[in-house]
Structures are given as structure tokens and as C-alpha cells.
Amino acid sequence: MIKFAKRDNKGFFNDVESAIDIGRIHISPFIADELYIYIEDKDLLMNISYFDLIEILNSTRMYKVDMIKRNTRYDKIGIIINQDYLGGINVCTIIDWGTQKIVSSVNNEKIRLDHGPDCEYNDCVYIALFNFFNELYYLKIRITETDIQPSLFKVDLLNFVNEIVFYELRQKFKLI
Q1: What does the DSSP 8-state code read for residue 17?
Q2: Greatest Cα-to-Cα distance within the chain, rounded to the nearest angstrom
Q3: pTM, two decimal places
Q4: In 3-state terms, the chain is what percent helix, strand and coil (to 5)?
Q5: Which of 113, 115, 136, 166 is most buried, by CB atoms within 10 Å?
Q6: Which helix (H) or strand (E) holds 55?
Q7: Is the pLDDT at 122 greater than 90, yes or no?
């Protein structure tokens, strides 16, 4: 059973440091393919699977962040994509097909909450959530045989939390 604790102004889920802390909301990294969200002022701990997260993100209000510059280069380690977005956000993504791993950083800090690539045939998707100046962002990179399509969204945090709560209620009470 996962428990939340706060030590030295940091959130922990069973000794695993939270990946995102925005105000009183704490989000764990994936722990055994589950994501845990703790809301301090409500003393509410919820968990969702990766596929539930995708469903919730698809119904959450978010705003596309415009990319102002993109540089893609091929290196010995794989494909390196540097993306500059409005608001001073620089995302660097390394796609290593040798190990089938994708790693991203935001302004030179590794993203701690990501998943993928998840592939069906020749269509792969990598997602990441991160905190930038107390705002939640959602990075999605779709990779096909012929294209790499990165997208960045600013997530409405209150709407995201509400969607998770409603999702949990539907699951518990088998609504809809």
C-alpha cells in the first residue's frame, strides 16, 4: 500500500520522491505502472494507471504552447531534438533506438515523470508531465516511420485534478 509523507518540504510516496509538486498537489513518478496523486488540503490519495492517465489527459482542458524553434540531428547515441517554446521553455529529447528509450529534459533538468515509447506497428508515442514555474505541462511526441511530431501543452491544473477525482468516483461507484 502506498502512503504519502512530507519531509523537508518534499513529498514522498513510500520513500519515492514526488516527480511534481505544485502548491498542495503532489504527483509521483510511475511506480509499478501506477501514478499517485496526493492533494494535501483534502488529504486525498488517488492512483491511476498509465492508460487511465491518457484518458484523463484527453478530457482535460489544456492549451497548446507554440514552438518557436526546432533542431533535429542524428548522432551516434540516436536522434536529438531541441525544441524552444514560447515562455522560455527548452525541451531536449534524446531518442535511443538501440535501447528503445526516450529521455527528455526541460531547461537542462531531466523530466522525472514520463512514459514510453509505447508502440503499435510503426506508430510510437512518448509522453511526459513536468512542472515549469508552478504550471503543469504535458509533452507528447509521436514518432512514425517518416516523422517525429513533438507537441507541448499547458495543462489547466484544477481541471486536471477535477478530472482525476471524477474518474475515481466513476470507478468506485461504477458510474457511466
Answers
A1: E
A2: 52
A3: 0.93
A4: 15, 55, 25
A5: 136
A6: helix 50-59
A7: no
- Mean pLDDT within 165-176: 79
Query: What is d(CA 123, CA 146) in angstroms, rounded to the nearest whole number?
Result: 10
Distance CA 137, CA 132 (A): 7
Mean local confidence (pLDDT), 147-171:
92
Sheet containing strand 10-13, edge to edge, reads 4-7, 10-13, 16-17
- C-alpha distances in angstroms, 161 versus 25, 32, 79? 9, 21, 34
**H or E element: which one contains 173?**
helix 157-173
Give the Å distances, CA to CA, from 78 to 73, 74, 92, 127.
9, 6, 13, 18
Of 102, 98, 85, 87, nearest to 148 by C-alpha is 102
Convert the pLDDT of each residue in 38-66 to its tens digit: 999 889 999 999 999 999 999 999 999 99
Under DSSP, the state recorded for 66 is P
pLDDT digits (tens, 9 = 90+) for 58-114: 999 999 999 999 999 998 889 999 999 999 999 999 999 788 899 999 999 999 999
